[in-house]
Amino acid sequence: MRKPHVNYVPPPGVTLDPITAKMTLVLHVSPEQGWTQLQNFFRGIAKDLIVGIYEFTAPHIESALVKALRRLDKLTLTLDSPPEPPNKREQTVETTHNELAAALKQRLSFAWALAGLGREAPAEAFPTSYHIKVAVKDSKVFWLSSGNWNTSNQPQVDPSDQAALIDAAHTQDRDWHVICESPQLAKLFRTYLLQDYTTAKKAAASAAAPVAAMAAAPLPAMAEQQALAVIAAHTPKTFFPAHTVTGTIKVKPLLTPDDYRKPILELIKSAKQRLYMQTQYIHTVVPAQDQGNPTHMALIAAVADLINAGVDVRLITSEFQDHMWIERLQDAGVDAVEHLRIQPHVHNKGIVVDSQIVVVSSQNWSALGTGDNRDAGLIIYNADAARYFEEIFLHDWVNMAAAKVLR
Questions:
Q1: Which of 46, 57, 94, 226 could lock 89 by a disulfide, CB 3.0 to 4.6 Å apart?
Q2: In angstroms, what CA-CA distances link 61 with 35, 271, 351, 353?
Q3: Is 59 helix (H, G, I), strand (E, B) or coil?
Q4: CB 238 within 8 A of CB 330
Q5: 307-364 pLDDT tens trace
Q6: Alpha-carbon Rg of the chain, whole angstroms?
Q7: Strands 312-317 and 274-279
Q8: CB-CB contact of 99 with 75 (8 Å)
C-alpha cells in the first residue's frame, strides 16, 4: 500500500538568504575528529536539543546523548527509517528510538520522518529520504554534517591514538562537519526542524492505516548497490585537528527541497582557478526525469564547462561511483580520466572553490539529492574555512584516492 502524500510546506516567516554575522565555526572531519567534537557539542545543553537526521544507530552516541541531557532537558528528534538490511549497523533506528523513549520518557518528542522509503513513515513528504544531519542546541549553536550518527560516520576513536586512526581511515567514512555558534542561523535551522517534526506528528496522528501495512517501495538500484568489488585502502600521511574560525562571516544556509541547485550552480560558475569536490557519488539523470529549474544536470554541465575552460577541477568520489556511473559522467562531458579519483569510504558531500568558499552539506549529487529529498548544508564565504577543507581534500587526492581506468 502506497503511503499517503503530504505536500511539503516550508515554515512561514523565514528566509534562506545569506547571513553575515559574528559567529564561531568549529570545522572538523571524520574519522579523526568527528566523535570528539560531537561529544563536545553535546556538553552544556541548557534547555533542549532539536535533531533531524537520516540514521542514528551508534550505541556510543545514544549513551552520550542521554547522559548529556540533564533532568529537565528535552530532546526533539525526527528520524528516518531507511530500508537497510537489519544487521548492517550495530542496532536499528527502531532500537535507538525505543531506548531513547525508555530513558527520556516525557522529555522525548519523537516523529518518524515522512520519507518515501522509510519503513516507519506514516506518509510521504520527501520522495525517498529524510537525509538531513542537523542538531540545534538551545537556539544558539548547531551541528551540521555530511555524516549520520552511525559508527561508520562517527567512529569512537581517540585522536591521539595513531594506530587507531590509521585503522579507522581504512574502514570508516570520510565526512566533513561544522559546529556553528550563531543564534541567527541556529534559530533558522531550529524553525525548519520543528516544522518537519510537527508535520510528521500530524501525519502520524491522521494515518488511516497502521504503519506496518504501508510497505515502502522497493529500494532502487542506487550507488550503494553498485559498489566496485574491492578498492585497496590507502594509508593517510597525516590527520587533521579541528580548526576554529571566529569573526564576522557570510554564510548561505542550504536546504532541499527549498534551495540548493541555484546557489550551488552560481557558485560553480563563479570558479576562476579551482573547484575541488569530494562526494559519495555523482549520478547523471536522463532529461525526461530531470525536473526543476535549474535541473540536476545543469550542475554537472557547469562542472564540465569549468574543465573545458581550463579551471583546475578535481573530483573525488567513493567506490560507489562504479564503471557505469563513471562512463555516464564521461558521456555528460566530464573528463573522468583526468579529473576523477576514487577514494574508499567517502561519505562527504563537500566543495571548495578558489580557496575562498567552502560547502559543507548532506546533499548527494543525484537528482533527488540535489532536488526533492530533505538535506541541509552551508556555503561558507571565508578563506580560512575554505583553506582548512582544501588542505584535507588535497591530502586525500594525493594519498587516499586513485584514478580508475575506464573499461
A1: 57
A2: 8, 38, 27, 33
A3: helix
A4: no
A5: 999 999 999 999 999 999 999 999 999 999 999 999 999 999 999 999 999 999 999 9
A6: 20
A7: parallel
A8: no
Q: What residue ranges of the chain have pLDDT lower than 50?
A: 209-230
E strands present in 293-381:
312-317, 340-342, 349-353, 357-361, 375-381
* H helix or E strand, kind and range, residue 141: strand 141-145
Burial pattern 253-285, b for ≥16 Cβ within 10 A else e, equals bbbbbbbbbebbbebbeebeebbbbbbbbbbbb
Residues sharing a CB contact under 8 Å with residue 322, sequence separation 6 or more, in sequence order: 223, 226, 227, 228
Cα atoms in the Cβ-side hemisphere of radius 13 Å centred on 306 = 26
Cα separation, 178 vs 166, whole angstroms? 23
Its pTM stands at: 0.94
Q: For the chain, how far is it from start to end, CA to CA, in angstroms?
A: 42
Residue 107 burial class via C-beta count within 10 angstroms: exposed 0-12, middle 13-18, buried 19 and up: middle
> DSSP readout, 107-129?
GEEEEE--BTT-SS-SSBSBSS-
Element containing residue 260 per DSSP (H, E): none
Neighbours of 95 (CB within 10 A): 15
Domains and CATH numbers, the chain: 19-225 (3.30.870.10), 252-399 (3.30.870.10)
Structure letter (DSSP) for residue 189: H
